[in-house]
Design a protein that fits this description.
Strand content: 15-25%
Radius of gyration: 19 Å
Order of helices and strands: EEHHHHHEEHHEEHEHH
Structural class: alpha/beta
Number of strands: 7
Largest sheet: 5 strands, mixed
Number of helices: 10
Shape: globular
Distance between the termini: 53 Å
């Protein structure tokens, strides 16, 4: 299809000044970067631009991706375009966004039978902040109680990641979808970085951050800014 022309599509909810990184290719490639909450929003628009009808099952997949990435539009990375696109996709797929979205998030939020080692590195990404390698993971649940009941085991697994892979710190966002807040667990040093970033006492091993849902917009930027002060 005409969609095969698209070599690379990038969805980024951060400011347009952000750098895409060191992409090197032998020949020029087509790139597309737009400030939306989910790449599926861009893909759906590409169907429309090329006058290609979206099949029902594909619409369901794209809708699921938007719901997941925006946490049913609760994430600060969400844009009006994500919402409008999701509405169109839901109509094609024949589902109610809220009912389908809540059922989907509920199905994906259970940690029953999930070992602490998996929870510790769930959806994790590596960052370099203040010259230190850090691993930041996130697990989104309907109720944090089930995860927090395993807190000691999870922290032990996080510390093991630091030791095994040489991270200065490992952080885990335990995000409550319903209450829209995050319990941030952390191991390693410097804990001062956490305290400076979020203006809280970080001498323990976790802090609660109300209203925080996004790693990209609400965790990494404050840590980066605090890292600059820490280095100074």
């Amino acid at each position: 299809t005409d969609l095969d022309k698209i070599t690379l599509s990038i969805a980024d909810g951060t400011e347009s000044k952000k750098c895409l990184g060191g992409i090197t290719t032998a020949d020029p490639i087509y790139t597309r970067g737009e400030p939306v909450g989910c790449t599926a929003t861009i893909i759906a628009s590409m169907y429309a631009e090329n006058e290609i009808a979206i099949p029902e099952d594909t619409a369901g997949l794209l809708l699921s991706a938007i719901i997941s990435d925006t946490v049913l539009f609760k994430s600060p990375t969400t844009t009006d375009r994500d919402r409008r696109t999701a509405e169109k996709l839901a109509a094609i797929a024949g589902v109610d966004i809220n009912e389908y979205g809540m059922n989907m998030l509920k199905a994906g939020s259970s940690v029953a039978g999930m070992p602490a080692s998996e929870i510790a590195k769930n959806d994790s990404k590596e960052f370099t902040i203040a010259g230190r390698r850090m691993l930041i993971g996130q697990i989104s649940v309907m109720d944090t109680a089930e995860v927090m009941a395993k807190k000691a085991e999870i922290l032990e697994a996080m510390a093991a990641l630091n030791e095994k892979d040489g991270y200065s710190m490992t952080l885990l966002m335990v995000t409550d979808i319903i209450k829209e807040g995050t319990e941030l667990l952390y191991t390693g040093e410097p804990k001062d970085l956490i305290g400076m970033a979020f203006k809280k006492d970080a001498s323990g091993d976790s802090i609660y951050l109300p209203g925080v849902m996004s790693r990209k917009k609400q965790i990494v930027p404050p840590l980066t800014e605090a890292g600059k002060m820490l280095k100074a």
